[in-house]
Amino acid sequence: xxxxxxxxxxxxxxxxxxxxxxxxxxxxxxxxxxxxxxxxxxxxxxxxxxxxxxxxxxxxxxxxxxxxxxxxxxxxxxxxxxxxxxxxxxxxxxxxxxxxxxxxxxxxxxxxxxxxxxxxxxxxxxxxxxxxxxxxxxxxxxxxxxxxxxxxxxxxxxxxxxxxxxxxxxxxxxxxxxxxxxxxxxxxxxxxxxxxxxxxxxxxxxxxxxxxxxxxxxxxxxxxxxxxxxxxxxxxxxxxxxxxxxxxxxxxxxxxxxxxxxxxxxxxxxxxxxxxxxxxxxxxxxxxxxxxxxxxxxxxxxxxxxxxxxxxxxxxxxxxxxxxxx
Length: 326
Fold this sequence. Notes:
This protein is α+β, with helices and mostly antiparallel strands.
């Protein structure tokens, strides 16, 4: 779970996933079919003979999406009495109608990223011709020439210009309109440009919030970095299912614990980090074990000085910790 106020993520649920033989075979078959799929030049024009209309709302979730669905549902039930969650943010791998359908089943909105070459369409706004079905899709979106009325913000940093557009667009794979934010960056010297397409099923979500929520997704990467660098997620040698689950959960649980302790420590030492916290706790442990071996306990003043001195050993930011020995 990602906090928009503290701007950091909190790992709450970890599930060990081992793909079954059926999933591996299905993945391999999909990759093979993709390689053997005929190109547009080889395929005849028009609709293939015998094809029928398909209801886009009838979506069969993959085993991966079912796992995410169950985890989101469990999380929503766990925090329902304390926090109201409205959105799930997934990376570009899940920028498809299957993931959006999964999110709506959980009664949350999807925020994700589409492929840069996604075929997006403007809604058809011309008058009805009086015959045939009502048209839904207008012209195809061209990211190089988006009307100025959809421009929301423009910034220039050095020779790099960033333009942000927002519009409700259609995609033939999705059953509903999408709230789309297009970020176009251009080098004003070379005129080279690139763009990113973010999307959400929440049609009323402002462009700045949609962009900010997707940027916050990267806080999850910092969580895994801390778990690997400081709490052994990358180093444990367990092989059994229970042992692996315990080790992974312990490493991620310590990420939450350490950030909670850092919040108190930084009130007196704003520059303190994880290594400073670990050094302080290690110093506490060393002093406590040593004091228990002494035949006579030192005076409170001397004991405070010992705690203060030892707790500073091994710190990255050497300061005088403000704490009282327990």
